[in-house]
Amino acid sequence: SGKTAAFLLPMLHYILENDIESHSYEDVAQPAGLILAPTRELAIQIYTEARKFSLGTVVKNACIYGGVGTNYQLRNMKERGCHIMAATPGKLLFLIGLGKISLKCLKFLVFDEADRMLDMGFIDDMEKLVANPDIPPKGERQTMMFSATFPEDVQRCALRFMDNYLFLVAGQVGAANKDVHQTIIEVAKHMKREKLVEYLRNFGDKEKVLVFVEMKRQADFVGSYISDNGFRSATLHGGRFQEQREEALSAFRSSQFKVLVATSVAARGLDIRGVGYVINYDLPKTAD
Fold first, then answer.
1. Which range is the signal sequence, renumbered to this chain (predicted)?
2. I need a surface site. Which of 16, 43, 54, 212 has the fewest CB within 10 A?
């Protein structure tokens, strides 16, 4: 859809046009652009896209998320500097608390998948961020919120975080994509695994299949079952180590594995080419 480019390109233009410092070899990182994402995988994807867009320029990008060594991330930021930062809320606030990241030079603040962030309980972290004493007032920074839905919680956040904001809609809010054919299959609970394997056989191996489950343990259980039935699959959920999560997503993107069994960690924002089928193994709890 070009959403990532919509917030990255203005940042890059501002940084290059105004010759903004990267603050390399300083003890405190001072990004000009900050993008908050609800999951590590989305933060990494945004960081990767930022590197592509800024290739051949002086713009330095950083990615901050949990599950990896803090010293390693801090060392990279100090040596390279940082103009644009993609981060998950918890790790970002932790490093701000340590005095390793300052928001005083911030000109662009982006909340990507804002409704998902609220669903995952990040509202307090979002509030702490915009209440940080170093952050410029909302009238002196550009704040953007991207959301697949626009519930009341997101509207209230927009009023508090943004200055006289403009509401833009692509398509119809909350409507299903007309290009996607959707089917509901009624099946007995004890027959779900067999029915899933039956559909995987009918699909063939030309296109990738993304299977969503509700629980972490269910992801491992279903992944093992379909692997035992001859389908190379990977699992992705919050209970796996960060390295395992990155390997699983990379293997699925590269078609090393044709099936990915995931929890809601992979439900929003990830750009994965060649996915022909999405299966909700467990009935989603909400329409969104």
1. none
2. 16
